[in-house]
Amino acid sequence: MFVRGREGRAVLDFVGHAVHYAMVIAGTLGVALLLLVPMRGRATAMTADHARRLAILRERAASGSLAVLDPLPPAGPSAAPRDQLRSAVVPVAAVASVAAAGVHAAVIPSHAREGAVVGLFFLLVAVAQCAWGAAAIRRPDRVLFTAGLVGSAVVVAIWAVSRIVGLPSIAGGRPEPIGALDVAATGWELVVIACCGWLLHRPPSSSRASTEWPLVARGWAVASVALLGVVSFLPYHS
């Protein structure tokens, strides 16, 4: 449905604020789950590993070979730092895309005053970035990585043009000032571009969603949600 005039701007104002704060709240809840669930999973894995090693010791005691100096199996699988970084690329890109979507949702009301079409553009970008992030977590593949790279590059290019020479429909065609909100969004989009480019050359070993994020990805999620919450209170001048 195409909206226009004062009523259209009011609708876009409401939708923009609703989407933005929904992302902040959902991000906060998601970070809480990321911090709690992996801890529970690691505790279960440690208990199982302890039981396994204890069973080996009992077998050796029963067979009289407890004094043999054969080493026990390593205490549980531990991913190498390089493997952890590799498994963190997809969630880092997904978090960055959703965080950028939160910024675009936050500026919908400001841009809707310049016209419903401009406001709708920012709404569509926010929804697309949020959907891409969810899809990347659910089932990452090369098509999705290509779409993320191209789509983010287009958004960054539009932002650069709007700050260097200006766009006809925004700020009267004059170059817009650079602010904290758009810098944060562009930074997250550049992260998406870098991650998608890396994933296109080195795709993940599995196309299934990972149920446990490495420490790097969880730290990135915490930092991104915190930054999104901070910039939410900053003024935006278009």
Indicate the radius of gyration in whole angstroms.
23 Å
The overall strand count is 0
Number of domains: 1
Question: What count of helical segments does DSSP give?
Answer: 7
State the major sheet.
Answer: none
Q: Kindly state the percentage of residues in helix.
A: over 70%
Alpha-beta classification: mainly alpha
- Taken in chain order, the helices and strands follow as HHHHHHH
**Terminus-to-terminus distance:** 25 Å
Task: Report the average pLDDT across residues.
Answer: 76
Shape: elongated
Quick recap:
The chain has helices spanning 5-63, 81-106, 108-112, 116-138, 142-164, 180-201, 215-231.
Description:
- With 238 residues, the chain is mostly helical.
- It has one domain (5-231).
- It is built from 7 helices and no strands.
- It has helices spanning 5-63, 81-106, 108-112, 116-138, 142-164, 180-201, 215-231.
- The two termini are 25 Å apart.
Question: How does the SSE layout of this entry go?
Answer:
Layout (H helix, E strand, L loop, with lengths): L4 H59 L17 H26 L1 H5 L3 H23 L3 H23 L15 H22 L13 H17 L7
Helix pairs in contact: 1-2, 1-4, 1-7, 2-4, 2-6, 2-7, 4-5, 5-6
Jot down its keywords.
mainly alpha, single chain, 238 residues, elongated
